[in-house]
């Protein structure tokens, strides 16, 4: 009797670098997992897709997104699904809001969260003691987070406080990412990024959005990008990602008449505006700062009078963006390799989610078309490596038994046309089919995630940010 599967994707060009597959294959999905990948699979399926002429890759893992209410918001789940993403790491939290928001607004992705360390919000001061960090990490893990995020570019800690956060996460095998910047060294640059590498003191660390330290403020951006790659090559315990969008993102919030984020102040300086709430308003009016707004079910960017109206209606508590990322370092950081043939920057991410730049496919596939990346390179940077960094052993590849996470790409239109997440169709031809979300967490957070009605994926401490295999 012929076998029956939940889903069959027939005749696609399967690209699965971990398993050495780069050829036309059928893919069968059963019970949430990959069942078979073979040249011809006999049998039937509840859902069959003819994907001939299309590329079939492991589901895209965007390891840097924002889905919390204060930065982009719940609409981001849908935006990620439309962009072909099946797994994402929220890089701010706070975790309580992320769990409740995912339970309410999730559409079926696997989502995780690192919870921010912010003076006056989650820790008392900019120089929290190791004991205070220890306590906050325990709360965050119990709440479902996989670790902590240092927001040095926006809300810096001292050097000692930053080092204490990284060391504490390292001691517990928890995840930690550091948007570089400290009270002593607040401005983004390659030197600031290297300070962050030094403060890690050999502990594992995720260095986010390397492109944001290479904006050409001191040298041509492409040279800063190469310098950043050379710095990171000296710190093998540090994993890195960059993004391809021209827009940055930062909180537009003001209190007592001044913007709260350091990033806002830098953008105002670059545009020649005062570091005041009035300066922000003028920058929005003039089209220098763009405001995130709901533009028909997804977040877009609006500016001018419309932008000011959105920003004011939100009481300034809304994300904003500015076009500060030059093209050369963005492209260089995605394609450059070190001498041993590895990528200079490990992963391709977006810093998107609720921020309108979910462009791994939109801006990444053009690099494939230009032969700057192979399809296998693309799958490595957008799925296999980020899954490995996150300790998600069942993601990033299509071996039988792996999670049924698949992204299908149309190389003519440079767009995702079909995704499966957890063995269930998530998106097809621009339509999202919402289903239950999964949430990756550590054993400490399993009960919280389950109690919220989410399906926990438990990642063992110490398997995240793994040591690099010897070359
Ligand atoms: Zn971010």
Automatic annotation (TrEMBL):
Q: Provide the alphabetized UniProt keywords.
A: Hydrolase
What domain of life is recorded for the organism?
Bacteria
What GO CC terms are in its UniProt record? cytoplasm
GO MF, one example = allantoinase activity
What is this protein's record name? Amidohydrolase
Task: State whether keyword Transit peptide applies.
Answer: no
Q: What is the lineage of its organism?
A: Bacteria, Pseudomonadati, Pseudomonadota, Alphaproteobacteria, Hyphomicrobiales
Q: Does the keyword Lipid biosynthesis apply?
A: no
- This protein's species is Acuticoccus sediminis
Please name the GO terms of the biological process aspect recorded for this protein, alphabetically: purine nucleobase catabolic process
């Amino acid at each position: 009797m012929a076998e029956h599967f939940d889903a069959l994707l027939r005749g696609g060009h399967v690209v699965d670098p971990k398993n050495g597959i780069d050829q036309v294959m059928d893919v069968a999905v059963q019970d949430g997992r990959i069942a078979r990948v073979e040249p011809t699979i006999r049998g039937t399926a509840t859902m069959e897709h003819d994907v001939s002429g299309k590329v079939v890759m492991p589901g895209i893992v965007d390891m840097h997104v924002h889905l919390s209410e204060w930065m982009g918001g719940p609409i981001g789940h849908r935006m990620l699904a439309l962009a072909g993403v099946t797994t994402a790491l929220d890089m701010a939290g706070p975790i309580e809001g992320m769990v409740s928001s995912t339970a309410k607004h999730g559409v079926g992705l696997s989502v995780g969260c690192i919870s921010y360390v912010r003076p006056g919000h989650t820790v008392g001061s900019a120089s929290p003691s190791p004991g205070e960090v220890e306590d906050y990490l325990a709360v965050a893990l119990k709440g479902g987070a996989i670790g902590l995020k240092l927001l040095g570019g926006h809300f810096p800690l001292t050097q000692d406080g930053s080092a204490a956060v990284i060391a504490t996460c390292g001691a517990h095998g928890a995840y930690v990412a550091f948007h570089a910047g400290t009270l002593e060294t607040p401005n983004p640059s390659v030197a600031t990024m290297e300070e962050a590498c030094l403060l890690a003191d050999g502990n594992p660390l995720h260095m986010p959005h390397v492109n944001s330290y290479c904006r050409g403020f001191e040298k041509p951006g492409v040279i800063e990008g190469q310098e950043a790659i050379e710095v990171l090559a000296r710190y093998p315990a540090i994993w890195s990602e960059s993004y391809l969008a021209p827009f940055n993102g930062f909180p537009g919030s003001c209190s007592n008449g001044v913007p709260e984020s350091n990033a806002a102040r830098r953008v105002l300086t670059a545009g020649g505006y005062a570091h005041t709430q009035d300066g922000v308003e003028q920058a929005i009016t003039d089209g220098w700062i763009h405001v995130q707004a709901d533009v028909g079910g997804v977040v877009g960017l609006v500016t001018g009078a419309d932008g000011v109206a959105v920003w004011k209606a939100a009481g300034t508590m809304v994300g904003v963006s500015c076009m500060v990322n030059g093209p050369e370092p963005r492209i260089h950081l995605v394609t450059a390799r070190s001498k041993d043939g590895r990528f200079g920057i490990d992963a391709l991410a977006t810093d998107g989610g609720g921020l309108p730049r979910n462009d791994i496919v939109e801006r990444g596939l053009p690099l494939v078309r230009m032969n700057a990346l192979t399809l296998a390179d693309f799958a490595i940077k957008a799925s296999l490596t980020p899954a490995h960094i996150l300790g998600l052993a069942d993601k990033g590849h299509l071996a039988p038994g792996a999670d049924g996470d698949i992204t299908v790409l149309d190389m003519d239109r440079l767009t995702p046309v079909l995704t499966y997440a957890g063995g269930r169709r998530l998106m097809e031809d621009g339509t999202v089919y919402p289903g239950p979300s999964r949430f990756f967490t550590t054993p400490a957070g399993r009960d919280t995630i389950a109690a919220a009605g989410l399906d926990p994926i438990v990642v063992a401490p110490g398997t995240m940010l793994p040591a690099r295999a010897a070359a």
